Amino acid sequence: MLVLLAGIFVVHIATVIMLFVSTIANVWMVGSSNYGKVSTGLWLLCNNTCEQLPVSSRDEASLKAVQAFMILSIIFSVIALVMFIVQLFTLEKGKRFYITGAIMLVCWMCILIGVSIYTARFTGRVPGSTNPYHGYCFILAWICFCFSFIISILYLVLRKK
Fold first, then answer.
1. How many domains does the chain have?
2. Where exactly are the transmembrane stretches of this chain (predicted)?
């Protein structure tokens, strides 16, 4: 049981770190231009230097929603990690980690909404580049989506023994 708890804890910490990286780094879409690789993220457009991401007025609300949901997912994931530690030391034997699992399900939903909006609105668009493809941050976000769902289900069924 202790090994299972430790494994879940390690995967949860890895998920939090990957969420931070995928939200902060600007490699959601990558393309090539005359000057080399061009990458865009949630915040900046990077070529040789990074500058504010140019977004049309009709896409601005979508980008703000993606930013908000990714930040919310980080917040909920950290809160769930703290709640897991608190519940680990305060729950009686035989009780389940319902609160932690519910918070991780909210985190999972935030990741789903954020990455889905990005996929629907911004896939294939890198200003001033050709041959755009998804970068590692986009892939990390989907991996975090899977991990957060698995962790939340494990928290919901896990009993403290």
1. 1
2. 7-29, 65-86, 98-121, 133-158
- On whether the CB atoms of residues 70 and 118 are closer than 8 A, the answer is no
For residues 136 and 66, what is the distance between their CA atoms, to the nearest angstrom?
17
Helix, strand, coil share of the chain (percent; to 5): 65, 15, 20
Single-letter amino acid code for the residue at 79: I
Distance CA 84, CA 116 (A): 28
Summarised one tens digit per residue, pLDDT across range 17-71 is 999 999 999 899 898 887 788 888 899 888 888 888 888 888 899 999 999 999 9
What is the H or E stretch that residue 33 is in?
A: strand 29-33
Domain that residue 88 falls in: 1-28+57-125+136-160
pTM value? 0.90
**Closest to 104 in 3D by CA, of 15, 23, 3, 22:** 15
Q: Which tokens go with 103?
A: 């918070």
Position 52 in a domain: no
The type of residue at 121 is: R
Asked if residue 37 is part of any domain, the answer here is: no
Predicted confidence (pLDDT) per residue in 57-113, tens digit:
888 999 999 999 999 999 999 999 999 999 888 888 778 888 999 999 999 999 999
